[in-house]
Amino acid sequence: MNQFLRFGGIIEDGASPQATTDMNASKTKPPESTRAHVLVIEDNRDFARLFGDMLEIMGCSRDIAFDARSGFDALRQRRPNLIFCDLGLPGSMDGFEFARALRSDPDLEPIPLIGVSGRTSSEDVQQALDAGFDRLFPKPVKFADVSGALSTYSKGNRQGN
After folding, report:
1. Given a cut of 90, is residue 110 above it in pLDDT?
2. Helix (H), strand (E), coil (C) string for the chain
3. Can you give the pLDDT at residue 18?
């Protein structure tokens, strides 16, 4: 079953694409139209939710998908400015396959894609770049790395401008 988390709720395949409302959302957040929208694709649900919470604290709106197929469902419903994707996703499509599929679609190719993985040797980094990732961050992700990526890529293009 494909699922993705949107604004604190889980939307399953076939459910209404309308976002659920996070009842604990801060009333001081900037309007939705001015916030960077980020998609996190991560199979570890605890880490995914923690990552999503960090993005919310940083002023972003976010969707969370727990596998690559759900990630594509989420980005088709609402195009993100930036995607963070685990390399070792379960199922028929891992993070590398997700990157190749994203880069092969002319409409989605410009979206910045950052890999997140416990594997960060120079060979792992090169394999991620070859697949289409723009960068690779080690797990656990650092607040400073995410903040820097948001500063660079929040406009939603790979050149960072």
Report:
1. yes
2. CCEEEECCEEEECCCCCCCCCCCCCCCCCCCHHHCCEEEEECCCHHHHHHHHHHHHHCCCEEEEECCHHHHHHHHHHCCCCEEEEECCCCCCCCHHHHHHHHHHCCCCCCCCEEEEECCCCHHHHHHHHHHCCCEEEECCCCHHHHHHHHHHHCCCCCCCC
3. 37
What pTM value is reported for the model?
Answer: 0.80
Contact of 68 with 86, CB cutoff 8 Å: no
Q: Which residue in the block uniquely carries the two structure tokens 């996703």?
A: 89
Comparing CA positions, the residue from 94, 161, 107 lying closest to residue 133 is 94
Residue 79 burial by CB count (10 A; 0-12/13-18/19+): exposed, middle or buried?
middle
pLDDT digit string, tens, across residues 32-54: 557 899 999 999 999 999 999 99
CATH domain 35-92+100-153 topology: Rossmann fold (3.40.50)
pLDDT at 16: 36
